[in-house]
Amino acid sequence: MHKKSFVTTLSVCVMILGLAALGFAQEAAEGGAHHANSGAQMKDFMWRTIDFAILVAIAVWALKKADVKGSLAARRAGIEKTLQEAVAAKEAAEKKFAEYSQRLDQANKEIEVISANMKREGELEKERIIAEAKEAATRIKAQAEAAAAQEVLKAKDELRAEAAKLAVELAEQKIKQNIAKGDQDKLVGEYISKVVTLH
């Protein structure tokens, strides 16, 4: 490919040189006055054309050496690769985002389930505590009623004993008031004779 470009460039330079030579030859044929100068001009023009051809060849060679098309293609490939990597990174980021969103939703659901379980357990614990408190209250009430009944019976017994004691004391006082001194002596004598009789 480099040879083909070089040959094309060389052909163009030779063609330009040939056209210039034809132009000078025609000018020399038409105007004899300029004939002496035309050889020098022709020589000068030929060197300039050769210089120009060399410059063009060097420029073409430099461009080929620099491989502008290849570097542009490489640059384009690099940009395409970067774009593909960016698209892949974007897709990966979107995938990660979707994954984390799914995990977050799952975590929120688990938190809701845990919260509901804790609430239910709290309600059950509350009901259990209330039931135990009611049971304890019933037990305490029954104990209090039993203790009160005991106290009432004890108080009744004490009242009966006190009443009996008072009745005896009252009876004694009545008897003492109703029995005269002689009756007392008589009763004592009867008692002594009974004791003597028994022995």
TrEMBL record:
Question: What is the membrane topology noted in the UniProt record heading this document?
Answer: Single-pass membrane protein
Q: What does this protein do?
A: Component of the F(0) channel, it forms part of the peripheral stalk, linking F(1) to F(0). The b'-subunit is a diverged and duplicated form of b found in plants and photosynthetic bacteria. F(1)F(0) ATP synthase produces ATP from ADP in the presence of a proton or sodium gradient. F-type ATPases consist of two structural domains, F(1) containing the extramembraneous catalytic core and F(0) containing the membrane proton channel, linked together by a central stalk and a peripheral stalk. During catalysis, ATP synthesis in the catalytic domain of F(1) is coupled via a rotary mechanism of the central stalk subunits to proton translocation.
| Residue ranges of the TM segments | 45-63
What protein name applies here?
ATP synthase subunit b
The places in or outside the cell where this protein is found are:
Cell membrane; Endomembrane system
Q: Which residues form the signal peptide?
A: 1-25
Q: Which InterPro entries match?
A: ATP_synth_b/b'su_bac/chlpt (IPR002146)
The text of the family note is: Belongs to the ATPase B chain family.
* Chief site of localization: membrane
The organism that produces this protein has a lineage beginning with:
Bacteria, Pseudomonadati, Thermodesulfobacteriota, Desulfuromonadia, Geobacterales
Q: How does it assemble?
A: F-type ATPases have 2 components, F(1) - the catalytic core - and F(0) - the membrane proton channel. F(1) has five subunits: alpha(3), beta(3), gamma(1), delta(1), epsilon(1). F(0) has three main subunits: a(1), b(2) and c(10-14). The alpha and beta chains form an alternating ring which encloses part of the gamma chain. F(1) is attached to F(0) by a central stalk formed by the gamma and epsilon chains, while a peripheral stalk is formed by the delta and b chains.
The gene is: atpF
Q: Keywords of this protein's UniProt record, alphabetized?
A: ATP synthesis, Cell membrane, CF(0), Coiled coil, Hydrogen ion transport, Ion transport, Membrane, Signal, Transmembrane, Transmembrane helix, Transport
